[in-house]
C-alpha cells in the first residue's frame, strides 16, 4: 500500500517536473522567436488561417445568437424593475467582458486546440519529430512556438469579431422589436463602454490564447509511441484548457473588481 502510494507520488512528481521544464523551454523559445533564423513562418500563417479565418462563420453565428438572446431577455426583465437604462451596460458587461473572450476560448479549444494536439501527436507517432531533430531543428521551436503565436493572435482577432457580431445581433433584434436608430444604439454603447472593459477583454484574450496553445502543444508532444495515446491526450488537452481558462477568468474578474 505504502509502496504503491510512493510510486504514484514519484510518477506525479516526475510528470510535473517534465511539464514545468517544457513550459520554461517553450517560454524561452517564444521570446527568441523574432530573432530565430529557423522560424516556421509558414506554420504561423497556416495556424492563423486555420484558427482565425476558418472559424469566422462559427463565431459569427454563435455571437449573433448570443447577442439576440441577451437583448430579448434584457428587454423583457429590466423594464419590470424600472432599469431599462442599464441595457447597454449589461450588453457591454456580458458580451465584451465575459462571454466574448470565454466563448471564443471554448470554440478555439474545441476546434484548434484539439487539432494541434492531434497533429503533433501523430507527428510523434510517425517519427516526423525525430526527422526534425536529426537535421538540427528543434520541433518545439519550429512547430510549437509558431502555433502559440498563431493561436494568441487569432484569439485576439476573433474576440473583437465576436463582440462586433454579438452587438450587431442585439441591434437587429432591438430594432425589430422597437424602432431604434442605429446611431443612437451605437452612441449608447460607446457611452457604456469604459477603458477597463476594453483592457479586460484584450487581457483575457491573450491569457486564454496562451493557455490553450501551451496546453495543446504540451499534450501533443507528450504522446510517446502508441496511436491510442493521441485521442486520449486530445481529450485531456481540451479538458485542461477549459478548466485553466475558467480558473484564469475567475482570478481576472476578482483582480479587476478589487
Which radius of gyration do the C-alpha atoms yield? Answer: 22 Å
Helix fraction, binned, reads: over 70%
Instruction: Give the overall shape.
Output: elongated
Number of separate strands: 0
Spell out the helices and strands N to C.
Answer: HHHHHHHHH
Structural class, by secondary structure, is mainly alpha
Percentage of residues in DSSP E strands: under 5%
**First-residue to last-residue Cα separation:** 47 Å
Biggest sheet features: none
Counting H and I runs of at least 4 residues, what is the number of helices? 9
**Average pLDDT reading:** 88
Given as residue ranges, the uncertain stretches (5+ residues, pLDDT < 50) are: none
Question: What are the key terms here?
Answer:
single chain; 258 residues; mainly alpha; 0% strand
